[in-house]
Structures are given as structure tokens and as C-alpha cells.
Amino acid sequence: MPPNSSDLCEARIFQDLLESLRQAFPSQSHRPTGDDDSQVSLSEKNSLPVDQKEAKVQIRRVKTKEGKDERILRRGGEEQQLGAWSFMEISYPCNNCKERTVIFDSASITYVCSSCSVEQSGILVSHLEGSFNAPLGTFVRIGTSEYNYRDRKRFDAQNQINDVASSLGLSSQHSDKVYHMIQQITNNEFGIGNWFSILIAACFHVVIRQNCLPLSISEIAAVTRFDVHEIGRMVARVTEFLGFNIPKFDVVASFERAIKSCNCLSRVPAGKLDLMLKQGRFLLQCCVKWFLMTGRQPMPIIAAVSLFVAEVNEVNVRIEDIAKEIYTGVNTGKMRYKELKETLIKVAQSLPWGKDVVEMNLVKNAPLILRYMAMKSK
Fold first, then answer.
1. Tens of pLDDT along 239-259?
2. Please, which domain of life does this record's source organism belong to (predicted)?
């Protein structure tokens, strides 16, 4: 690609500057000529006389009679004209000597100070075109200051919060609550790393529980790809630090969401689905009374109840499909399903006409058993 006019201008100015520096600092040892003549080794620098090494070289801007800006190389009492200033040069002060003599070195594509020859690390420029309303060749300083580092952390945190909220199907109001909660916990410092991602997941769980939403911690763990126990420990620390008393998990609301949202139950007729919801709500209340949920995660029991009411209503579904969609373990769901049937058999055998109820005919007699239990509970 052919060079543009600005590159040619910069290359010419840089060559003039190098030629002026060669004349100002004559070497006592032999140096190769050509393109490598701009690179001076450490031994060659040490071979210079003391007065030349300690002499201060400056490049300053002067106004000509015609009103144009030109550069003047000054060493000791001698001055030499270098030519016009380039639009590539900036007035940003040097990081070392604080002089406003920073120029762009087109050969190394960096900014250097013409007073102390120190490369200006931490200055990042970029050519802006298109949507940026500025003339061609405009450069801006981005920098790597502490403010930009903190601002980048806030930006990354907001993006991560929005991603989790979108994956969980939550609104912007919930994500704003999580953002302000993290802002309060971290004293507006935010953070990076796994611990911060776990903190975001824990704050989402707190907000979900505060708003009584039917989302479990296992679903948050599946979305954020962190362990449930890690998120649970962080939830305990967050609630203790903020002094929150979050409400208990709504098992019935979560069961209703599972029945209505599972793809494996999407083809069930509306009337049969309502009957499954009614039977499932009553069974979950019985599970609480029978202590089947005490000290245990609720989602496996929800999977077991969902499978049982589906079998009672002759809906062909597997517990593997239900467990996958509600983010719970298959083996644990099978254990809770076995415990549920064993408990129902014991309850049914205590009824006057239920002595013949066994595991083989439990599903067949379940509608009558559930209706009788519901009538007796009123």
C-alpha cells in the first residue's frame, strides 16, 4: 500500500531530526552507515566526551515572520533550524521531564520526547475516521490511568451483570439492583476474576429471593457455570454483610414454572395440565408436612412430584428430561421419587380401604388417594 502524505512528511521530518542530532553529537568511533546509522549502541554512547554526554539538547517551537511554526534545535549556545512542525506532534507533557516536547516517531510508531529522548509508554493513539467528526489525521490520547482502569472494571461488571440477567430472563430493574448491591459491597471498586463472578451470581440469587421469583440457585449456577455450594457460601456472606433477611424459596411457584415451561410437557392439553398443577401443589404441601424437604435442595423433589403427577395423568415423560430442564441432578431426582412413592404407600395403607395399595398399583389408585387426602385436609 503506498504511503500517504502524512507518513512521508513524518519520515522526512524524522530524517532531518536524525541528521541534526548526528551533527550535534559526532562519534569518535567508527559507525556503520545506511539505515542502521540511527541506532547507537551503549558502548558508542559511553565513547562520547563528557561535555557532549552532559550537554542538554532541546527542540523548541518558534514563530517565523510569515506566521508559521518551525522547530529549532538548541545545544548549548548553538541553534539550528529543523523545519516545520508536523500535525502528528502533540502537546502532551513528557512522562519523564514534563516538557511539552513529545513528538511522533514514524520509524518506531511511538511517541518520544525530543528533550530527553524517553519513549512515552502509556500513550495510545488511534486514527479516527467515519463517525468521529474530526479532520483526517486527528489523534486522541486514550492512556492507561487509574481512572480508566476503574472505569473499565465498572464497564466489564455491567456487561457481565447484563449477560447473566439476559440468560435468566430478568429485567433491567433486577440487573440495576444487582449493580447497586455490588457497588455497595465493593465500595464502588468492583473487581475481576472468579470471586467477582461468584459475587454477581450470589447477588442475583438475593435479588431473586427478595422478589419471590421462581428461579433456583441451581439455575443460576448452570448459567454462570459455578458450583452451587460456592454461590451458596457467597450468598451467606452477602446477606450477613448487608443485613438482609431473604424470604424462603417458593417451592410451589417453582413447580408451576417447571410444569408450564418444560418442553417435554408442552404437548399436554390445557385441561390435563391444570389437573397436574392442582395435584402437584397438594403433593408439595404434603412433602413439607412429611419432612421430605427438610434440609434438602427443593429442585429434586420438584422433579419427582412432576414425574409422579405426569404418570398419574398418563403423560409419557422421563425424569431425565425434567431434571435437565430444571437444572437438577438425575440420580437425586430418582431418589426423591422413590421416597415419595414409599411415603404415599404408607399413607394409603393407613386408610380404611388402602391396605392393598402397593408400588405396582400406586399410580392407578393415586387419583382417589389424592382426592381423599385433600378432602380430609380441609
1. 999 999 999 899 999 999 999
2. Eukaryota
- Report the C-alpha dihedral over residues 343, 348, 350, 352, rounded to 10 degrees: 180
Quick check: 223 and 164 in contact, CB under 8 A? yes
CA pair distance 339, 346, nearest whole angstrom: 11
Statement: residue 231 has pLDDT above 80? yes
In 3D space, the residue among 312, 175, 333, 195 whose CA is nearest the CA of residue 258 turns out to be: 333
Terminal Cα-to-Cα distance of the chain (whole angstroms): 86
CA distances from 206 to 148, 172, 213, 247 (A): 30, 16, 10, 9
Cα 246–chain centre separation: 26
Q: Provide the 10 A C-beta neighbour count for residue 62.
A: 12
pLDDT of residue 353: 80
- In the numeric block, the cell 517565523 is attached to 64
Mean of the per-residue pLDDT values of the chain: 77
What φ, ψ does residue 124 adopt, rounded to 5°? -120, 125
Q: Which residues of 116-126 are buried (b: 16+ CB within 10 A; e: fewer)?
A: beeebeebebe
Buried b (16+ CB within 10 A) or exposed e, 19-57: ebbeebbeeeeeeeeeeeeeeeeeeeeeebeeebeeeeb
Q: Which three cell numbers stand for residue 260?
A: 408450564
For residues 68 and 340, the model is more confident at: 340
Q: What are phi and psi of 329, to 5 degrees?
A: -80, 140
| 76 or 321: which leads in pLDDT | 321
What is the Cα 247 distance to its own chain's centre?
A: 28
Alpha carbon 238 to its chain centroid, in Å, reads 19
Instruction: Identify residue 291 by its one-letter amino acid code.
Output: F
Q: Rounded to an integer, what distance in angstroms lies between the CA atom of residue 44 and that of residue 87?
A: 33
Read off the DSSP letter of residue 265: G
Residue type, 156: D
Q: Given pLDDT bands bounded at 50, 70 and 90, which one contains residue 70?
A: low
What integer pLDDT is reported at residue 32 of this predicted model?
Answer: 42
Q: For residue 102, report the phi and psi dihedrals to the nearest 5 degrees.
A: -90, 125
Rounded to whole angstroms, the Cα distance separating 362 from 360 reads: 6
| Cβ(182)–Cβ(190) below 8 Å | yes
